[in-house]
Amino acid sequence: MRSEIGTPKKHIHLIGICGTAMASLAGMLQLLGHRVTGSDGVVYPPMSELLAELGIPVLQPYAAGNLEPHPDLVIVGNALSRGNAEVEHVLDERIPFTSLAACIHNQFLEGRDSLVVAGTHGKTTTTSMLAWIYEFASRSRPELAPSFLIGGVAENFHTSFQLRPTRPFVIEGDEYDTAFFDKGPKFMHYFPDALILTHVEFDHADIYRDLEAVKIAFKRLVNLVPRRGCILAYDNSDNVTECVSRALCPVERYGFQPGSMWRLANLRHAGGRTHWNLLRSGEPWAELSLGMAGEHNALNATAAAALAAGQGIDAASISQALATFESVKRRLEVRAVVNGITIIDDFAHHPTAIRETLKALRASYPDSKLWVLLEPRSNTLRRNVFERELVESLMLADEIVLAQVFKQESIPAAERLHPEAVVQRLIESGHPAELHADAETIVDAVAPRMKAGDVVAILSNGGFGGIYEKLPQRLGILAGKQRRAGCC
Q1: Which structural domain, as residue segments, surrounds residue 38?
Q2: Is residue 224 located within the same domain as residue 372?
């Protein structure tokens, strides 16, 4: 039983509200005047903080009683399945329900310009960049003020969503499935007027059979772009090339290839910033600067710049916007500096993302010892399908520490990543590596060995047992003991 949102204002309940997109949708629905409540099994920042700031109550744990009295509409998150107490109550009581993606399309995208950023990597950062370019440009052209929905908290906005009455709507197009009753990708609901396609790789091994299945999903997305639209596609991926090969709209390639319409040249890193020249059809177009390291971030910025230019935003506004872009929470985010040790949080969820993160850190901290503390938590990393690629990516670090696979019992043994095998392969190849049971034992083992000047990359797409708080706290205690010992 489905229902759409209209007037009068309603009580809307979101099951799985602490997912990044779900919390953002909750905020957008509240802006429309609806009474919004939600529930979840696990609550952690940054979305728990956002919901608290919005005053949206979050009920724990999942229970049928959370839906009494009945809300007017329930939005079911894609992490929920049959057997969940609230899902079962919704079905038993025939409470109207829908999915996040369908709600976004029907309530927010109709009558707007849908600007979609998709791809297996880089879409959150690229979406944030594109939204900021539009926001910056709207200072002189108010009609460009964007609405947006991002799969992370954009630092320039201090939020993951914004709702404006203007036409541009910038949205992250997620390839993950929509809901237990709609197994197609969420991005199939967004009907892009313009599309960025960053990368296409095998990911989400829990829902996609293989790379071919992933490519089919992206080909279907490409097929939704109208002839009057435009696609910006990364130029150094055979998979991306295949996915856009039958597009009926113009396709503009971006990257480092000589024949691409948008080409990066003279890429360089200095003082924590990245600089490059951007050529358009072989001619100098702009000199760009970004306060983030990494070739991948320069590519993300180029994609955002190219789409914005195609929509009529001038090069000067784009250049100034990117120069003032402040990144996204949990994307190379410096969480603490304790006794000269820099602790960085990154959402890396796939071996390719891990590789690019570590390459960016090498560029930013070329003289530092680089630690990696990894929790295999994403549905891809918990499986052994990318074990070889994971080992190769982790080799970019000086010290590698793995935790046990998150909820390993939920992954069939034959498919499960065995971190002890990863550690063994790293050691055999001459790279220091170790395995610990959880965040507490990792902190106990590594904190006493860390020294001023070290950089610590903590990689997880979840809470990692509170390690983001526990490690700085332990390092602070050790530093205090060292200072006291030196005074005696």
Answers
A1: 11-95
A2: no
pTM of the predicted structure, to 2 decimals? 0.85
Q: Give the DSSP letter string of 48-66.
A: HHHHHHHT--EE-S--GGG
Contact predicate 383/416, CB 8 Å: yes
CA 224 – CA 142 distance, rounded (Å) = 29
Strand duo 273-280 + 262-270: pairing: antiparallel
DSSP-assigned states of every residue in 313-372: --HHHHHHHHHT---BTTSSEEEEEETTEEEEEE---SHHHHHHHHHHHHHHSTTS-EEE
Q: Is the peptide bond before 61 cis (omega within 30 degrees of 0)?
A: yes
Of the candidates 24, 51, 13, 14, the residue with the CA atom closest to the CA atom of residue 147:
24
Query: What does the H/E/C string look like for 79-108?
Result: CCCCCCHHHHHHHHHCCCEEEHHHHHHHHH
Query: Does residue 328 fall inside a structural domain?
Result: no
Residue 204 CA to residue 465 CA, distance in Å, equals 23
When divided into structural domains, the chain yields a total of: 3
Q: In a 3-state reduction of DSSP, which class is residue 264? A: strand
Here the contacts of 413-416 (C-beta below 8 Å, separation 24 or greater) are 415/205, 415/383, 415/384, 415/385, 416/382, 416/383, 416/384
- Non-local (6+) Cβ contacts of 326 within 8 A are 154, 155, 156, 291
Length of the chain: 488
For 266-310, how does the pLDDT look when each residue is reduced to its tens digit (9 = 90+)? 999 887 799 999 999 999 999 999 998 889 999 999 999 999 999
CA torsion, ordered 249, 255, 258, 259, to nearest 10 deg: 0
